[in-house]
Write a structure and sequence with these properties.
Blueprint: H1 2-40, H2 51-68, E1 72-79, H3 82-89, H4 91-106, E2 115-120, E3 123-129, H5 133-150, E4 165-172, H6 180-195, E5 202-204
Parallel strand pairs: 4-5
Antiparallel strand pairs: 1-3, 1-4, 2-3
Length: 223
């Protein structure tokens, strides 16, 4: 009888330990999968979302905005004269500059659905749900000011003493005739316009009107 009791207790203990080991192994596997998924969506240099994460979030927020008939805004951002910065100070300093700008941009994405991503090179992009035309350009002003106030030194050889950015702004209420790529193209074209008009500013362009009713860029008077 004692042997049977001992055998039953040992069997139960072994089964419990095996169950716990299986649970731990499952938790570790899920944790590793989560970490790998996170790394696959994160830019290695800036720790912001990468292009893949941005594309997925844009599609998701586009569908949500379409269901709620709300406006979705995009800010396309370029670090002004970044090639000059890299050529003068070298790539390690250029990387540090991009990380500083990335941290400043990240501080403007606070609400659910808002996202800051590195789009490529010295370009960044921001998504703002429930944000109309006026709110989008106000955000662009705040983003510009935050980089200006950071006073990141610009190497000699330019008229400006500090690093600045240019921003292309676009917003729309999704519809059947509209696509998220058209919103992105409008923001990119707006960025192109402001870069051709002095940089260190913003330009608004709706996807519906394209270049026809682009808002004039504000004068880049700050250096």
């Amino acid at each position: 009888g004692m042997f049977m009791v001992y055998y039953a207790e040992r069997r139960d203990r072994d089964m419990f330990l095996q169950s716990r080991l299986l649970q731990i192994a499952k938790w570790r596997t899920e944790r590793y999968a989560h970490d790998l998924d996170l790394l696959s969506r994160q830019d290695a240099l800036t720790a912001l979302a990468n292009r893949r994460h941005f594309d997925e979030t844009l599609e998701q927020e586009w569908r949500r905005a379409g269901r709620h008939k709300s406006s979705l805004a995009i800010l396309m951002i370029d670090v002004d004269n970044f090639k000059h910065y890299n050529d003068k100070l070298g790539h390690p300093e250029g990387d540090r500059c991009l990380r500083r700008v990335a941290n400043l941009l990240a501080g403007h994405a606070r609400r659910p659905g808002e996202l800051v991503a590195r789009y490529g090179g010295e370009e960044f992009v921001m998504i703002f749900p429930d944000t109309d035309h006026q709110q989008a350009v106000n955000l662009a002003e705040h983003v510009l000011d935050s980089v200006r106030r950071a006073l990141i030194p610009q190497p000699d050889g330019l008229e400006r003493w500090y690093v600045t950015i240019s921003i292309g702004v676009s917003s729309t209420v999704p519809s059947e005739r509209m696509t998220p790529s058209r919103l992105l193209v409008a923001a990119d074209q707006a960025l192109y316009e402001v870069k051709n008009n002095g940089r260190n500013s913003w330009w608004y362009l709706s996807p519906e009107l394209q270049a026809a009713q682009a808002a004039p860029a504000k004068p880049a008077s700050w250096v």
